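If your schedule permits, I should be very grateful for your opinion on a structural question. I have a record of one protein: its chain in single-letter code and its fold written as discrete structure tokens. Would you kindly read the sequence against the tokens and tell me how you understand this chain to fold? Thank you for your consideration; the sequence and its tokens are set out here.


***
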Amino acid sequence: MPFEAKGTGKRSHTKIRATGCCARVNARVKLRRGGGEGFHLVVKAKGTHNHALSPHTWYNYASNRHIQDEELREEVAVMSRAGAKPKGILAYLRAKTGKRTVLRDVHNMIQDAKKRFDSGLTDGDRALK
């Protein structure tokens, strides 16, 4: 008896980034009138959001969790090679950056570091490690 799928093949994702939202915020910096020193910010907002707004959703976007500091990424690589556990590295990153990095992000950084470290080795060298 062959397997027959009961689903429709589509999952309904409620928390997605591409929402088709028509809300727009434009901001620009203007010099003060009359030649005075300093500047001020001009902000214009149009439209309304067609999705829920919450800090929780914003902080969990991958682009907001990503560690871009190359020195910090190198520290993660050194900690991993020294035998630090990913959960310990995660705690260190959260304390250092204040970002809501998740364990999967740490695993991905460790994998990237291994690829960079092992990229110059031959198959035989990697097997002997």
Remarks:
- The mean pLDDT is 86.
- The first strand starts at residue 24 and ends at 31.
- The radius of gyration is 23 Å.
